[in-house]
Amino acid sequence: MNSQLAFNALGDPTRRAIFEKLQHRPMAVVDIADGLPISRPAVSQHLKVLKEAKLITLKTVGNNNIYKLNRDGIIAMRNYLDQFWEDALTNFKALAEQTEKDKK
């Protein structure tokens, strides 16, 4: 997964709003567009970007396109961020140990 695509996709407030709506349940475009200040075609364009970033998936059921969050894409983003957290903890531990050593 290209984390840069995912973070760029979520950089847009409308896409974040769509992404957050989908955390509750899979939805059709008409349901996603409900309450958003943009047209359905605009929602579809935002969904395309989220799909290309592998943050959502699409399943066709009858005449409806149902969108849902892509668990694998979210896990990949979390794993990307976790590497920074692990580095930060390692650096904090080293600094704390050095500070204790310097006190003695």
Any overview of this molecule?
The chain has 104 residues and is of the alpha+beta class. It has one domain (3-95): Winged helix-like DNA-binding domain superfamily/Winged helix DNA-binding domain (Arc Repressor Mutant, subunit A, Orthogonal Bundle), CATH 1.10.10.10. The protein is built from 5 helices and 3 strands, in the order ααβααββα. It has a 3-stranded antiparallel beta sheet. A hairpin with a 2-residue loop joins β2 and β3 (64-69). α1 (3-10) runs antiparallel to α4 and α2 (13-22) packs across α4 (40-52). The termini are far apart.
List keywords for this structure.
alpha+beta, Arc Repressor Mutant, subunit A, 104 residues
What can be said about the biggest beta sheet?
3 strands, antiparallel
Give the name of the CATH architecture.
Answer: Orthogonal Bundle
Mean pLDDT comes to 92
Low-confidence stretches: none
Report the span from N to C terminus.
Answer: 47 Å
* CATH homologous superfamily caption: Winged helix-like DNA-binding domain superfamily/Winged helix DNA-binding domain
> What general outline do the C-alpha atoms trace?
elongated
The helicity comes to: 55-70%
* Whole-number total of structural domains: 1
Number of helices: 5
Estimated structural class: alpha+beta
**What is the number of beta strands?**
3
Order of helices and strands: HHEHHEEH
Strand percentage, roughly? 5-15%
